[in-house]
Design a protein that fits this description.
The protein has about 450 residues and is of the alpha/beta class. It folds into three domains: about 180 residues, 3-Layer(aba) Sandwich (Rossmann fold); about 60 residues, no CATH class; about 190 residues, no CATH class. Helices cover about 55% and strands about 10% of the residues. The protein is built from 21 helices and ten strands. The strands form three sheets. A six-stranded mixed beta sheet has the order 5-4-1-6-7-8. The chain is rod-shaped.
Amino acid sequence: MKVLFSPVGTADPLTMLGDGPMLNIVRYHRPDKVVLFFSSKMAMYQKRDARYTEAIKLLCTSERAACPELELVESSHQAVYQFDHYIEEFEEILTRLKAENPKATILVNVSSGTPAMEQALVALGSFGHLDIQMLQVITPRKDINDRSDREDPNNYDLDVLWECSFEEACDTTNRIHVVESPNFGARLLRENARTLVAQYEYDAAAKILSSQQGASGKALSTVRAAADRLNLDHKPELGQKFNAAEVAYRPPSSLENQLAEYIWVMEVRYQQGHWAEFARSVTPALSKLILLALRPHLSEAEWTVLDKEGKLEKEDFKQVEGSKYLGSIAHDVLTDRRIVYFLSNNDLMGLLEAAQKNGDLKNRELYRALRNVRRFESKCRNKIAHEIRLTSRQALEEISGYKLADVKGWLFQSYNELVDDNPIEPGVYDRINDWILTLI
């Protein structure tokens, strides 16, 4: 079964040049039902001489075909140039037609009516919410219409025009083209997904791609892998997804690799403008960087004690009471009431300062960078972690006295000073995005 929904205009039902769009569709698609949509002016012409419905009846008689069921709908809106009104009207009508005729093909004429009507129908079809087939009918001229091509609607004589339609000069050939509506809708969804990827919103982009028929499976799986990586969800397949040098993945098999992935995530939060999240994430990054800086200057026993997420117990202190650095901490903080002690970044920075003063830490640039990050953390991080306050970029920079861009730079600098044989470059997730965009 076929149902045709067609606005009508002054090129309908036919002119001296040939079929108007509505009549050409009826001629070649033979719908079982035709729903004609009228503006108030077109409805006036229909009421005056029934030109639209009579043309369909004349066609069916001449073709010896059954006349389709006819339904006439007059628009409730007078502003024929506002397409948003028509979107609501058309969506309601087309939804009803599909509900009334669930197994029918709903044909839609997008070549008749006002420009606003045509735009509204194309928009509805393009977004793919409606199960419709949009039909465009090329003019008999096979080019842009000329004003003289259309009959004067106020002096319209259907009978004369119908007789003329049997002459050779009158074009009644099939001029119908199917409008590939999914094209625009799919392209729009792809562009939305691409925009989300560029903003590192991988979960949202994956939802769009998973809802889109024909979306690249590789693109979807890569976007999901990027989301896992950004969330530090180290699934086994991440290594397979990100094996290219420019987006190299570092599995969390070492402190260095954990830090590299974490600093890249911090860079994304900075790029997104999530300033408070960036500032709060400084604490674990700084802890690990200081540990890496201290490691060459500690004994195996001392390193074993420190490399426990900062959690120290009595037994740990007993192992290091005589150590150059940890012994002083053990003496200061261990009491009978304190069985477990968590080393703060202040404690770790104290150890680093001691190493620098003793001449063990000779890299002064590294020391300055870590000291600056610690000062930023002490002035800023704790306030936003424990207080409700403004966390704009400007506010955080005023609180701390440091530029957030500098803090980010010091994190990369410190890592590369410590792991000079395998440094990290900024922009890994931007390179991941460039790669994903080629797949979408």
